[in-house]
Amino acid sequence: MTNRWKSIGLAAMLAGLTLSASYAEAAGVLTIGRREDSTTFDPIKTAQNIDNWVFSNVYDVLIRVDKTGTKLEPGLAESWTASDDGLTYTLKIRDTKFSDGSPLTAEDAAYSLLRIRDDPASLWSDSYKVIDTAVATDAHTLTIKLKNPSAPFLSTLALPNASVISKKGMELLGPDAYGEKPIASGAFVVDEWRRGDRVILKKNPNFWEADRVKLDGVEWISVPDDNTRMLNVQAGELDAAIFVPFSRVEELKKDPNLNVAIDASTREDHLLINHAHGALGKKEVRQALDLAIDKKAIVDTVTFGQGTVANSYIPKGALYYYADNLQRPYDPAKAKELLAAAGASDLTLNYVVRAGDEVDEQTAVLVQQQLQKAGITANLQKVDPSQEWDMLVAGDYDISVNYWTNDILDPDQKTTFVLGHDSNNNYLTNYKNEAVKELVAKARLELDPEKREQMYVNLQKMAKDDVNWIDLYYSPYINVSRKNIENFHQNPLGRFFLEDTVKN
């Protein structure tokens, strides 16, 4: 899942500068500083970490990914079985309730799956079109029949965007109202959403694991400026903050009042390229850009050694990662030759940069200098984070750095989103390769692990040859919290297990 954001505004800036201490001191309420505000609580309408990381504790899924980020475990489905032909899955739904006290049933689970498959507003429909039918056999039995066997199917049920929502609630309230203040199936319920400022969550007493939850509530507070956010934690105005700048890690580690958590991740930072813009539609030009960027210099300078150079859209350590994938050397002279041969000498690009994001701004300056050595002019356009995502969606950019973290264990989700379908212009890039798209679909159906792995090896090679985007680096999640906060961690897919977090 990616780093994207929407409405933040002046209120968030002011909140970041002068946070009321009463929030941080509230008994049992965890305050977390983050860059961006949420965009919606309708799970099918977003693909953003800023939303999904909150969803994961407001909603529950049928099947979860465990804390290690390596295996599936029961969620709202306490057990499941699959038929020998791999076409029918039967899930037993727990006897539990939504936050409004209404029963959570197999009918709600079926409705949620069919909605993510069929609703025109769904960003995730491609991953669920394999579902033929989803039926509540009884209140606690969900039967799913697939059109064909699907290797990643169980993993897709763990996607936060496939969370179980209330059928009656959605039909009564409508998607807009539900997306503002949803009926929760997870550990916390949305008490209030102050747009541009904070999301206020309260413990859900009807959650099936309510006894596990130690916090009374959680506040996700928007503080767009990285340094301000760190100062807020150091001053005790926030209990915790995410997205710690690489440059601040060692300093924060020395603060006796703080804990710095460096957790394994599936994060991959990359340079988006808009293939629909002129010369960028030529593969040779994109290959020249790749040659013109010194990734090792970015890792050393920007990440302070916390990152490692990326060579694939599949992150290191993830299923089917191809360690021997091509890594183009830094060669500005060769880049110049390719550009000249493609008739793209003196290339000028609009580089959209997130203002206030220390890492993004540092990367932009470095990349700009590197591209200049290959004769490429990159004009940096610094924009407020509230503008940036809309600009990328609209295609109002040439290049821009972004990142993705996996949401499921299987590579199908990211591969589909980035390489294999058209509904989101292949993740904002307008990348098109019909052979790649066809192989993405075939890999989803292949049940032989060795054959399937080879398909993903080939996809990684093809994506690198085409330069769908430029892989930059892999890095861990780095978060900070006060010493009185326990169990504030993410698993490799990014989920915060706030049901286990303690504020002493």
What does this 3D model show about the protein?
The two termini are 32 Å apart. Strand 8 and strand 9 form a beta hairpin. The chain is globular, with a radius of gyration of 23 Å. Strands 1, 10, 11, 12, 13, 14, 15, 18 and 19 form a nine-stranded mixed sheet that branches. A four-stranded antiparallel sheet has the order 4-5-9-8, with helices on one face. It is built from 19 helices and 21 strands. It is α+β, with helices and mostly antiparallel strands. The protein is 33% helix and 23% strand. The N terminus is likely disordered.
Give a brief description:
With 504 residues, the chain is α+β, with helices and mostly antiparallel strands. It is built from 19 helices and 21 strands. The strands form six sheets. Strands 1, 10, 11, 12, 13, 14, 15, 18 and 19 form a nine-stranded mixed beta sheet that branches. A four-stranded antiparallel beta sheet has the order 4-5-9-8, with helices on one face. Strands 2-3 form a two-stranded antiparallel ribbon.
> Largest sheet, if any?
9 strands, mixed
% residues in beta strands:
15-25%
How far is the N terminus from the C terminus?
Answer: 32 Å
Low-confidence stretches: 3-25
Shape by Cα distribution: globular
Range of helix content: 25-40%
Classification by helices and strands: alpha+beta
Radius of gyration: 23 Å
The overall pLDDT, averaged over residues, is 93
State the total count of DSSP E strands: 21
| Individual helix count | 19
